[in-house]
TrEMBL record:
The gene is carnmt1. SUPFAM superfamilies: S-adenosyl-L-methionine-dependent methyltransferases. Transmembrane segments: none annotated. It is found in: Cytoplasm, Cytosol; Nucleus. GO terms for biological process: carnosine metabolic process; methylation. InterPro entries: CARME, SAM-dependent_MTases_sf. Belongs to the carnosine N-methyltransferase family. N-methyltransferase that catalyzes the formation of anserine (beta-alanyl-N(Pi)-methyl-L-histidine) from carnosine. Anserine, a methylated derivative of carnosine (beta-alanyl-L-histidine), is an abundant constituent of vertebrate skeletal muscles. Also methylates other L-histidine-containing di- and tripeptides such as Gly-Gly-His, Gly-His and homocarnosine (GABA-His). Residues 1-11 have a biased composition (Polar residues). GO terms for cellular component: cytosol; nucleus. It comes from Cyclopterus lumpus. Residues 1-56, 414-446 are annotated as: Disordered. One of its GO terms (molecular function) is carnosine N-methyltransferase activity. This is Carnosine N-methyltransferase. Its main location: cytoplasm.
């Protein structure tokens, strides 16, 4: 069983969290890269200037929570509207054309059935989400049966979340995980090998953890691992898969029914995917795995806390990626490492009223070095996919950058001490994971 902590302001990434975050029980725990973040709140760029009162914050938080619950509940209606529209188009064709397409209407009926099935899974996710946070209750709906319409924006995010189940928790997603997660995992094992480290003392943070598979895999290897996630779509879903799904391949989703273009066969659109490919509850009893809810830069402010921060398809979610660079620098212990893999598909690009600093990798790299990191490994071209439909006639490949950047271990040593560190090759190669344990604070659990 995992523990979830939640910070405030999940609804509004633009506001600063005052009191940090508080622990909550309850659980165990991507977007695709297409604007998975929260809906624009219409706030100005300077977040400091726009703090609401705590009461207003709590109200906005509640509204946001229920808006996302509503999106999960509205899904079936939304897909059925799409199906009805497609049926209407077919039925509007001249009869002789319809006669040439004997299977089309039955395929649409099948899509409708698949949506009903997806809705059952989504209902289970919602059912387990209503009280998943220990320290916050979001009240009850006056009429819980009432389904409120959702925006296309939220429906798109929900569909992306469904695809994220495939990336993280299905056999089908294995190839994608091998290209995205495996290089990060191998690097952690190379940097903190278990024959030289007590890995149960090596702490790894995964900001933007999505449905938690990367963090889970790292915890399975014995490292302390914490995922951090901001989106309720992801948090509800990760809570479900991590805490409520025990039987391998017992559940089915139809993630491709929303894709009406680029299908070679109609049956490709309605093919099922089963999950979870492993029992998420099968972590060793002494595993130290947690998920923390909230905005990465707001939740993590404690200096010199982590041995490793690993970002996968994450840094382009920033309004200002330099803020992420600074935060990672601050929270890493001296000698700690930042491992990154991902593209730069800036999530706030083209969003009105949103700060979005779209830098090239070259510029980010300059900033990383200027902050003080030493880049130890750099691969400019790692090809990966993201929630790919491997039967689609349109497929994207991301040409990702992969790097390992170290916060030098000699940072806090001046004069003689610093020179000693410089001379100590071993110290340079292996950060002092067990030497300066992360402080046990509110950001940790189990
Ligand atoms: C493209 S997804 C990647 C998910 C996962 N790392 C993977 O590779 O599948 C980016 C994730 O970062 C989360 N995210 C975006 N901004 C965040 C923030 N400020 N703090 C924490 N998580 C954030 C999103 O909700 C989303 O789940």
């Amino acid at each position: 069983r995992l523990t979830l902590y939640q910070s405030n302001q999940l609804h509004s990434p633009h506001l600063t969290v005052g009191g940090g975050h508080t622990p909550r029980e309850a659980f165990s725990a991507g977007i695709n890269n297409f604007q998975e973040e929260e809906a624009p709140q219409g706030r100005p760029f300077n977040k400091e200037k726009m703090k609401d009162s705590p009461e207003e914050e709590a109200k906005l938080e509640r509204q946001h929570f229920w808006r996302i619950i509503d999106a999960f509940r509205f899904y079936r209606v939304h897909v059925q509207e799409q199906v009805k529209r497609a049926e209407g188009q077919i039925l509007s064709l001249p009869q002789r054309h319809q006669d040439l397409l004997p299977d089309v209407l039955s395929n649409l009926a099948r899509i409708s059935q698949c949506a009903d099935h997806n809705q059952e899974i989504l209902q289970a996710v919602v059912h387990n989400s209503l009280h998943m946070f220990e320290n916050i209750e979001y009240g009850e709906r006056e009429d819980p049966r009432k389904v409120c319409p959702s925006t296309t924006f939220d429906m798109d995010k929900l569909k992306s979340t469904i695809k994220q189940f495939i990336r993280d928790w299905s056999e089908t997603g294995r190839a994608e995980r091998d290209t995205c997660y495996q290089p990060i995992i191998e690097e952690i094992q190379r940097l903190f090998p278990n024959d030289q480290y007590d890995v149960s003392k090596v702490s790894v943070l995964i900001p933007g953890a999505g449905l938690g598979r990367l963090a889970w895999e790292i915890a399975r290897l014995g490292y302390i691992c914490q995922g951090n996630e901001w989106s309720f779509f992801m948090l509800f879903s990760s809570n479900f898969v991590l805490n409520r799904c025990e039987t391998v391949n017992s559940l089915t989703l139809y993630p491709w029914i929303h894709q009406f273009s680029n299908n070679k066969k109609s049956s490709d659109q309605t093919r099922p995917i089963i999950f979870p490919d492993v029992n998420p509850q099968s972590l060793p009893l002494d595993a130290d795995f947690s998920m923390v809810a909230g905005d990465f830069v707001e939740v993590y402010s404690e200096s010199d806390s982590w041995d490793c921060v690993a970002t996968c398809f994450f840094i382009d979610t920033a309004h200002n990626v330099i803020e992420y660079v600074e935060t990672i620098w601050k929270i890493l212990k001296p000698g700690g490492v930042w491992i990154n893999l991902g593209p730069l598909l800036y999530h706030f690009e083209n969003m009105a009223d949103e700060l979005s600093v779209e830098l090239s990798y070259e510029d980010i790299r300059t900033a990383i070095v200027n902050v003080g990191f030493r880049i130890e490994v750099e691969k400019p071209s790692v090809q990966t996919t993201y929630t790919e439909n491997d039967r689609s006639m349109l497929r994207y490949i991301y040409d990702c950058v992969f790097f390992v950047a170290r916060k030098p271990a000699d940072l806090y040593f001046n004069g003689q001490e610093g020179e000693e560190e410089e001379e100590d090759d071993q110290q340079q190669s292996f950060p002092p994971a067990a030497k300066s344990p992360r402080r046990e604070g509110t950001d940790r659990l189990t």
